[in-house]
Amino acid sequence: MQHIKKEIASKIAEKLNKNVNEILDNIEVPKDSSMGDFAYPCFKLSKELRMAPIKIAEDMKSEIDFGDNISKVDVVSGYLNFFVNNEKVINNIMTDVILNKEKYLKSNEGKGKNICIDYSSPNIAKPFHIGHLRSTVIGNALYKIYKNIGYNVIGINHLGDFGTQFGLVIEGYKRWGKEYNLEENPIKCLVDIYVRTSELAKEDESVKDKARENFKKLEEGEKEVITLWNKFRELSLEEYKRIYKILDVEFDSYNGEAFYNDKMSEVVNILRDKNLLVESQGAMVVPIKGYDIPCMILKSNGSTTYTTRDLAAALYRKREYNFAKSIYVTSYEQSLHFSQMFEVAKNIIGEEYAENMVHVPFGMVLGKGGKKISTRGGANLTLEEILNEAIDKAKSILEEKGNAKDNIQELARQIGVGAIIFNDLKNNRIKDEIFNLDDMLKFDGETGPYVQYMYVRTNSILKKANFNIEEMKVEDIDFSLLKEKEEIDIIKAISRVKEVIKSAADQYEPSIITRYVIDIASLFSTYYNAHHIIAQDKKLMNARLSLVYSVGLIIKECLGMLGISCPDKM
Ligand code: ARG
Predict the structure, then answer these.
(1) What is the pTM of this model?
(2) Digit-coded pLDDT (tens) for 244-263
(3) Is the CB of 140 inside a 6 Å radius of any atom of ligand 1?
(4) How would you list the strands of the sheet with 295-298, edge to edge?
């Protein structure tokens, strides 16, 4: 469909002596498909041409030959409405899908280019909270979307495994370590120790001093402290990996903040050599135009900061990956940090690279009724417990339905986790997300289980009809039999899939794909409620079954890009 839009634009552009892209931007898709497939608003030209819009439209209609991809052109109140030649276009789209299958959705736009995506990145000794789950889910979707358009993607978990909190945790562990079963529940124990030690530090200055000392030793690589730090990191990582396994998420690198410990002096030196470092109350900062607060590089005690480590990471990623883009997925609360860090980075990695660093912010996760979910208040659940709760709920729904008996645990995981991911990616990421397990697990409405169920539907129709796409020859399928409005609507929606994926990538917005999957699923549901797919006429049936196959393919591939797998039964 896209190339037909371009054809229309270039013919209008030629006639009006204008730039094609300008015309292309003005071409609309009518909401109601009975008004045509494309519409060009002529009233925008009225002033310039000193003519009534209707007259402009009529002249264009009679003077331009729009070619045989267009079967009809209508003039409706200042618009030129175009109807594409359905039979021809549908045959082209369907042939393309059936011949290429998964490849129909792919492109090689990013061939030879590297993209770094920094996501999830929880902090050791602080809770892995639901905001990190969002970062994990959005980052993982972007990872898959960019892979799909041909980029070489590097998924980076920039673990928060460094910083002054470690001084405190190490101090607390030295005092009360024996009271905790770190092996069994590392994240929770470390958080508890951290909280307990910070409480004590409030009353007892000497604890603070000890903590500072510990952190200094950590920076200097002292053996005893490093051993403890390593143990905390390893045990926490094991627990994170368990969560990532449930989510089916992987990373190419776990280089966290500590990895940059020995790489920060270079950053400090570059800034110093360029005369950008300024002393402020004992700390070293870089003032930035347009910001009231400068960017802190070294604290007054000489320690580095989160920002210093991010600058070192930017330099490392430039050298190691020569990135075409470097993306950071965190909540919007870090927007200031990233915009300042990107400004300072210009002086370290050069403007061309710094301009390709992008912060992808997202909104808060709220409970039902818009209340803030916190790990302390209300349900004091760990992330793993939340995921397992979703899986258990999905399992009881499956048991109630009684359809899925064997492999029920894996099906429940796909549905439970899929429901959480789908809910997370359903709306624009910057919007706050409402987290309510019962709502997201509903089998109808705009939910993960609903679209998964539509996929399962396509599968069972194909199975029932004994239809195997691998055994079909595309020349033998008569796509001209697909004439129903519902069929044409689906096929036109299918033809948009690549544009949809491209916009999701360009706008770092997986929800564009989620919305699209919802559209396809509901178009399909309308279709099979209105028409018999398993028909008397074999030729008609094969045409319809290949459409059903295509719908299943699109849903499965798109959900896959969002990080959601499709169960084979439900
Ligand atoms: N650990 C940080 C947090 O939990 C997120 C890190 C994001 N990535 C980065 N390169 N700063 O808030």
Answers:
(1) 0.92
(2) 999 999 999 999 999 999 99
(3) no
(4) 278-280, 283-286, 295-298
Q: Is the predicted pLDDT of residue 375 greater than 60, yes or no?
A: no
Q: What is the pLDDT of residue 377?
A: 37
* Segment 436-439 long-range contacts (CB within 8 Å, at least 24 positions apart): 436/367, 436/368, 437/386, 437/389, 437/390, 437/393, 438/393, 439/368
Question: Which is it for the CA torsion 524, 529, 534, 536, positive or negative?
Answer: negative
Encoding tokens for residue 519? Answer: 């559209």
CA–CA gap between residue 459 and residue 549 (Å, rounded):
8
Buried b (16+ CB within 10 A) or exposed e, 89-124: bbbbbbeebbeeeeebbeeeebeeebbbbbbbbbbb
Please work out, in degrees rounded to the nearest 5, the angle formed at the alpha carbon of residue 281 by the alpha carbons of 278 and 285: 30
Q: How many angstroms does the Cα of residue 362 sit away from the middle of ligand 1? A: 13
- Cα 158 to middle of ligand 1, angstroms: 6
Find the radius of gyration of the CA atoms of the chain.
Answer: 28
| Residue-range domains of the chain with CATH | 2-84 (3.30.1360.70)
In whole angstroms, what is the distance from residue 253 CA to residue 239 CA? Answer: 17
In the chain, the amino acid numbered 142 is: L
Residue 378: the pLDDT is 40
pLDDT digits (tens, 9 = 90+) for 403-459: 767 889 999 999 999 999 999 999 999 999 999 999 999 999 999 999 999 999 999
Sorting pLDDT into bands at 50, 70 and 90, what band is 376?
Answer: very low
Which amino acid is present at 175? R
d(CA 236, CA 241): 9
Handedness of CA 269, 270, 274, 275 (dihedral sign): negative
Residue 26: the pLDDT is 94
Q: How far is CA 270 from the centre of its chain?
A: 35
Ligand 1 pocket mutation pick from 121, 132, 157 by most atoms within 8 angstroms of CB: 121
Please calculate the CA angle 532-535-537 and round it to the nearest 5 degrees.
145
Residue type, 218: L
Q: How far is the CA of 302 from the centre of ligand 1 (A)?
A: 22
Residue 374 above 80 pLDDT? Answer: no
Is the Cβ atom of 123 under 6 angstroms away from ligand 1?
A: yes
Of 551, 268, 246, residue with least CA distance to 412: 246
